[in-house]
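User: Last request for today: this protein with magnesium ion, please.
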Amino acid sequence: MCSQKKWYSFVLPRYLLYDVNPPEGFNLRRDVYVRIASLLKTLRKSENWVLVLPPWGRLYHWQSPDIIQVRIAWSEFFDIPSLNKNIPVIEYEQFLAESGGPFIEQVYVLQGYAEGWKEGTWQEKIDEKPCIDQLMYSRDKHGYYRGWFWGYEETRGLNASCLSVQGSASIVAPILLKNTSAQSVMLDRAENLLHDHYGGKDYWNTRRSMVFAKHLRVVGDKFRKKYLQSTDEADRTQYKEDWTQMKVKTGTALGGPYLGVHLRRRDFVWGHREDVPSLQGAVKKIHSLLESLKLERVFVATDAVEEEVELLKKLLPEMVRFEPSLEELKLYKDGGLAVIDQWICAHARYFIGTSVSTFSFRIHEEREILGFDPKTTYNRFCGETEKNSCKGNRGNPGGSGKFCHSIDGTPGTLKATEAVRTKLEPDSGWVRQTLLGRMKQQSLINMIAWQKILRI
Ligand SMILES: Nc1nc2c(ncn2[C@@H]2O[C@H](COP(=O)(O)OP(=O)(O)OP(=O)(O)O)[C@@H](O)[C@H]2O)c(=O)[nH]1
Ligand SMILES: [Mg+2]
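Assistant: Here's the final one, the structure of the complex with magnesium ion:
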């Protein structure tokens, strides 16, 4: 099924776009970026490919009222020049401007195999297959595919089909290089791809390139200084704007004089009953850590509901939190606040997070990058029914069956949590129905809007 290359594919770059299962949160999406970046590197060995950053929006957890959180550019949360030092990336708006309009030539929806995966017989494979589930795209009267497309209603797919895949990200490369000559290709449900080399050099280069946007780091640094007596000089966490120039040795960072805590609540309380502590249990652990580490301050990042925060304040009066004003919330949005919390936790002398939370995982990684001793980093609260010495929080995102490695190559102990955790999200049921419903409604609105613009 080889197709001939169009003349312009030798002049213009080819664009790779992607999206992730709608219920997935901010932090798993950040991990999927790492996987896609390795695919892009593989593609670039043969052709000039550029990655189009999927706009952020409509995430399950970003529910702050009165602020619109769709079509958010990556520059709101990440430093684009830093990303570009790893692979060429552009924002979606730039893609629209330079690729000639809101068209994506080929959409591939990634899916598993209808027959499933038999335990013990892991084999990497990819095949063009009929779609197993109903497509989250519908065809308009002109034959274009309409779908969510990150909230860009005018975007249309020219073709859409399904790929069954079981394997690492780069397994898609031969399909993109040989089976299609489309100038722009989107991989939907990209979380189905695993890491090429979890914990390898490439993995860490991409992860290190995901530098938080400067304006958010500045807010976090000011807060550290004002409320936690924490500065880079004193904490030995000197930061270089150019991540390629950062040569940090593991164990050299000291961290600010505070305990950093990530207490994941809300859906985790009922979704992970065995390994998430009660608030009382968490506070008991925090007190014992403060005592053994001889620290007086504790910074708590949490998504707890208001009543739980009130209870926490009573149980833990010494707690310090970043509490944004409405203005700050509007400015930084839920994603920016998550980044600020993560940045402050990443600079603590000692960090303890929540079991299998990708929010906590990203803090662990940030601390590795800053040069913290893993012993001060890979800690998690034990659940009520676990013993107090429950295992650390070193997960292996997407490395199914492989062990994970820290930045200096130290092997971790726990396996494949992020890869299998996709199944924990509320994929089916109301999410799907709601999206399909909205999609139908939207395609009608889109059609009318486009008829007006194109005068057809
Ligand atoms: N500001 C802030 N937001 C948080 C905190 N904990 C959770 N959140 C919010 O909840 C979201 C967490 O969802 P995910 O990114 O999916 O991470 P997770 O749910 O912990 O982990 P998985 O479901 O395993 O992927 C974040 O994007 C935040 O919006 C916190 O401590 N501070
Ligand atoms: Mg989540």
